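Give me structure tokens for this 315-residue protein.
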Amino acid sequence: MSRPNRFILPPAEKSARLTHELEDVPSGLKKDHAFGTHRMVYDPTLPLPHGVYGLCDGHRLYVQSVSDRRVVSWLNIWLYVISLPLGVIVLVDLFVSRTPPIAVAVIVSIVLPLAIFNSWRNSRRAFTKFIVFDRDSGLVLFPKARKWPDFTVPFEKVEVYSMTMIGKGGAHFTSHISALARPKGMRGRRKEWFMMENVHNEIQLLEQWCFINRFMDRSHSDPVPRESYFTWVDVHWFIDQGLTLDQIVKEKGAVIHDRDTGWIDYPAKLPPPSEQDYLRAESQARGVSLEELYKIHGLDKRGRKKETEEDSIYW
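Here you go.
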């Protein structure tokens, strides 16, 4: 059984208060479209993604921050940077029947196990840092990172842009979310890598950014449109329960996501969303019947995966 993920979300009170004494920061982009860097511009006519990469209850959307030690541990990176090249030296010396320098051997024997231990320990930590898009307050919380304190800015003071960097192996796509305001006394810009490992090109990034804009637009009564049927099902489960992620953290200390069930571990009155709930929402969003959707996904009349000849040999 796989170990569940734990999410310790910031209290809702943090993203409900605007940071005092903010000063505007000019955008780092001189043009919307420059070589290798493109600003994402929200267009309400564009189609939305099936879901958003974040925890959402209809009140707040929590997007994981790269400054979380569970995501990126700079200590571990430097431990590996130090130990791996030295480890190669030791192996080469042993291969040619030479005794490696004692100092090098000692460093490798200490630093590499420490790096492996830290990797194991970090894999068991809870996720604790999130960029919070608060629909109720219209604010965005940037978490504490290195020299930066945590602070909130109006949603209008946030921009997202893609970056294509040329390096070993060709072009590498990445993306950033940037605050166009900062607490007085700070220098530079507060930026985050945006949705690492989930967004791989500009189209996916623009879809996610359009979803966030739609979510933060309080002129819509429903925080999530049916078009984004995966997140729509999740959010309406919370709405039907009269529950928020903030309440769960205050009651349980963390949101615990069970990888085996694919849902949070919480003694709720309603059962967690089922595969049929997602399929029904998708059929409504796409304007097709369930039977037609089953055919599209290769499911049988009960909405289950069809048994193939390859599957049947195991029965």
